[in-house]
Amino acid sequence: MEDLELKNLWFSYEKKLADAQLLNAQSWALNLRCFAEIQQKKAASKLRALAIHNVFAVLLGIVWVLFLGVLVWGNGFVNPYFCVSVAAIALFSLYAVIVYIRHTAIINSIDYNESVVAAQEKLARLQTSTFRSIRVLWLQMPFYTTFWWSPEFISTGASFWLISFPITLLFVVLAVYLYRNLRVENMHKKWVRAIMMAGPELRNVVRSMAFLEEIELLRKDV
User: Fold this and answer.
1) What pLDDT digit, counting tens, does each position of 111-135 carry?
2) Which of 10, 20, 69, 120 lies 20 to 30 angstroms, CA to CA, from 191?
3) Helix ranges, the chain (H)
4) What is the pTM for the complete model shown?
5) For residues 146 and 95, what is the distance between their CA atoms, to the nearest angstrom?
6) Both ends of the chain: CA-CA distance in Å?
7) Crossing angle of helices 200-221/2-75, nearest 10°?
């Protein structure tokens, strides 16, 4: 009789323990789902703001490219330095417009009903493309120092060779240096991080990735 009572007590204890574990697991699952929804909303908010920024950038970029095209057309290639410089700036601006459109398409393709990993992969592509575009756009700097050149100015000699040309050369060196050093692996350097995170493009992407990363970390802990 005592053995039977002990067995019943043991089975009762095991059932209560199993019920408690089940309730605990259900509670963790509910907490994880609520946390994931909050983090996803935070990430979506950052990306939504970035998408709106990109739309305005595209509109302004198109107007800017058309304006530069009118300047080149109006010059009639009378001043080749002006035309080449402005045309180069227009091409870089057109590249930026295309990049903004592509980034907006990636943002709109993110479905938070998919797995977090799938969203992270798209954000990683967005981050890589943002890094590359920022690096490329720095290469247009020297052309902002040459659009006002003219054959007459160069022929004057001293002012061009002692002031204007060294400044342009300095900007060329700086542009190439930035292009070579603004990389993901250099983000631990304060000056690289300050430049790359100055605009909303990379800043919002990185924050969105961090929100989704916290979901994965909590899921692994659970």
Assistant:
1) 877 777 888 899 999 999 999 999 9
2) 120
3) 2-75, 80-109, 116-137, 151-155, 158-159, 165-181, 190-196, 200-221
4) 0.84
5) 20
6) 42
7) 170
Determine the Cα–Cα distance for residues 115 and 65; give it in Å rounded to an integer: 39
Whether 171 contacts 142, CB under 8 Å = yes
Residue with tokens 């000699």: 157
Q: How big is the chain by its Cα radius of gyration, in Å?
A: 29
Measured in whole angstroms, the distance separating CA 48 from the mean position of its chain's CA atoms is 13
For residue 115, what are the CA distances in angstroms to 119, 125, 162, 183? 7, 16, 60, 28
CA–CA separation, 94 and 77 (whole Å): 21
Mean of per-residue pLDDT scores for the chain: 85
Does residue 205 contact residue 49 with C-beta atoms inside 8 Å? Answer: no
Supply the DSSP symbol for 65: H
Confidence of residue 24 (pLDDT cuts 50, 70, 90): low
- Amino acid type, 135: R
User: CA-to-CA distance for 142 and 168, rounded, in angstroms?
Assistant: 6
Contacts for 69 with CB less than 8 Å, ≥ 6 apart: 90
Between the alpha carbon of residue 210 and those of residues 43, 92, 119, the distances in Å are 8, 31, 12
Contacts 24+ apart (CB under 8 A), 13-16: none
